[in-house]
Design a protein that fits this description.
It holds the Pfam family Methyltransf_25. With 246 residues, the chain is α/β, with parallel strands linked by helices. The chain is built from seven helices and eleven strands.
């Protein structure tokens, strides 16, 4: 089962909608008000892409999951000339156009298996950006991976499904394993639920490691802030944001 295959069906319901507002606010603060051509990597079901298009930006949403992209496309109409969605891999952006802005939020980079893969993403993003373009992304901090995620437990239930999320330390430094279990109602007529299990593996690195890789990819102006603010990270910041200029 591919990652998110089941999760895509109930993704919107289990996600905190206020996070999308925070990502939208953060993005608009750092790209200005004039219309931009934006590529949103790991766009999921397209909520942020839609909001960016609604305020006048030309947006392409890209996601590895066909299921996510199908849900995202349901948000569009024939009148949405500023918005499109595609299935694609952030590890290979050769076929994409050039953009003013590339974003990659929701700690999606933490799903890369190793530093080499992260470096490849940075290289591909740099190539996809116009000169002077901006790359915005976020990742989990080491503090969150080491102190907040271990033994994390979350349960969510409706009449249609139940969702269980348990997290445990991974096998490599600064990594975490999320065990997701879904019980999804099969039919409306009968209370029969089918169980699905997924393993999501994430890892992060030090800020210095990210900065070194970004510089190697050709980014010359790199700023790091934390937790949706424009403040520098501290020892207990949970999410690091990078603002990078080509």
């Amino acid at each position: 089962m591919t990652i998110y295959k089941t999760f895509a069906k109930i993704y919107d319901e289990v996600m905190d909608e206020t996070l999308y507002e925070d990502w939208l606010d953060f993005t608009t603060r750092h790209i200005g008000e004039s219309q931009k051509n934006i590529l949103e990597l790991a766009c999921g079901t397209g909520i942020l892409s839609v909001e960016l298009a609604n305020i006048g930006h030309q947006v392409t949403g890209l996601d590895l999951s066909e299921e996510m992209v199908e849900l995202a496309k349901e948000r569009t109409t024939e009148a949405d000339e500023l918005l499109s969605f595609e299935v694609g891999d952030m590890l290979d952006l050769k076929k994409t156009n050039q953009y003013d802005v590339v974003t990659c939020f929701s700690d999606s980079l933490c799903y890369m298996p190793n530093e080499e893969a992260v470096q490849t993403v940075f290289n591909e993003v740099n190539r996809a950006l116009k000169s002077g373009g901006i790359f915005l992304f976020d990742v989990h901090s080491i503090f969150k991976i080491e102190h907040e995620f271990p033994e994390y437990s979350y349960h969510y239930q409706t009449d249609e499904f139940a969702f269980l999320w348990e997290s445990y330390p991974g096998d490599v430094p600064y990594s975490i394993e999320h065990f997701l279990t879904f019980f999804v109602k099969e039919t409306e007529e009968e209370d029969i639920f089918k169980r699905y299990d997924e393993l999501h593996e994430e890892r992060t690195y030090s800020i210095e490691t990210y900065e070194k890789m970004l510089s190697k990819s050709g980014f010359t102006d790199i700023k790091v802030v934390a937790d949706f603010t424009d403040n520098e990270p501290n020892d207990e910041s949970t999410r690091w944001f990078f603002i990078c200029q080509k």
